[in-house]
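From the pipeline queue, job 12 of 40. The input is one protein chain; the requested action is below.

Action: predict structure.
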Amino acid sequence: MKYDDVLQEIGFGKYQIRVVVLMLLSCIPNGLYAMLSVFILDIPEHFCHVGIHDDNKTSTKIINVSFNNYIPWEENDAGEMIPSKCKRYLWNETEDAQNRTTIGCDRGWNYLTKFNETTAVMEWNLVCGNSWIKPVIISGYMVGTLIGGTIGGALSDRYGRKVIFLAGLALQSLFIVLLGFSNNFITMTILYAVAGFGGPINYTGAFVISAEIVDRSKRALIGNLANGAFAVGYMMLPLFAYFIVDWRWLCFTIGGLGIVFVPYCWLIPESPRWLIVNGKPEAHSLLLKIAKINGKQTSNLDLTKINAKDDEVNVDETFKPTLLDLVRHRSVRNRTFVLAFIWLTVALTYYCISLGTSNLGGNKFINCFVAAGVEIPSFFLVYFSMEKFGRRSTLAFFLVITGISCISAPLLLRVDKNLMTACAMLGKLCISGVFSVVYVFAIELYPTQIRNLGLGVCFTFGRIGTISAPYVVFAGENSRREIPYITMGCFTILSAVISLLLPETNNVKLPENMDDVIKQDRNRIKMCR
């Protein structure tokens, strides 16, 4: 008897709903932690401290006119004259006012804060010559997620879904709390990287446990709900940051939320599928418990003879996939190259826009909240678009709109900052939806023999994009504001073009082996002729 047959018999009821809800709740902190750097590493407006104030913190309400004697004025990207961020005059009363000598901020900086907030950037002066440190810290988190996402699945397969899920949840919560005790950027980078390591372990663990306890018809829905839970956490972040203005206490607070998940040690079951595959005797009692709570009878089922393997496809178990199988056949090679570039682009664009919300102008809390909020409708738009127009058309369309929005955003800056923000948010809405498309598309494009391997490679290239994102944002903060947007625009439009090289997979049987992939491409070429 197949495991999926048993799931049909025991039904979808109270037990699964309870577990799925608990799992989705555990995904919410991921949105908080992944975007935490938007606030704790925010760079406020700043200029050189010139010794005429008692401290290095200044109200934004007024810049003393006497600063003309100490701070040179420069034109920003919007054509406005602002005090220089990294230079001051070496004032000498005998020196010609028109030819005054400028030097670096040897006495530190004054920071213009609107809400009396503090950040690690302000505390350690990670600006001007030290501004390169900020993207290093954020990249540390992204490297942690890359490692966690790469080995998390193997650990889960070996030691169990539940224990690894709980370990990931504890790791990220604990190390976000410890992040608040950082006394230098090196310590912060290490702690944030470990928190990043736990993130995908927890997130994917929650999805896997949920997906393996329900029948296949509800797995796609659970995936979208997990993405929605991440967006909810992302939307909560600016609310926490608005009321908790000290960056250390912000870390303590949102990291401390992990304590509410301690009861999960008793509330969350091990995956029945994993128990069966690994020959654990408690699988039988767990399935009986689920059936009882759901009000189902299992007297006609022989639960001792369950085969946990899916019966969707026939898989050649003697085939041992390697990375070479992703490039050995031209059809598979083309799919791999195209998908890898698209995943890199999508991850790069998503995190560039997300991490750059505080640089859009206006209220950074509202910008972050809107950037998170637009993700929720994007899931619905993409879902219905994929069903009606197919995967390839949906992917290309949303990538093109993202590209146009990104390229247009800096051009609108000189017209109105709100127009730039609106354009960036449109790009965020589209690229968030694309994330859902590429997961489904990759699963349907790769044959069963190398599906997990292909997804792993796509995930790796996506993480390369996330690691690169802080440096692209850094280029915009320290050079020209339009650099990230032009970069994202070019990448997304190019991705949209090459996505047309992929075959449509909507309502198409999943390929089982390499021969099926080759046949698909041959049939597509014949139809084009």
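Job complete. Residues 58-63 have pLDDT under 50 and may be disordered.
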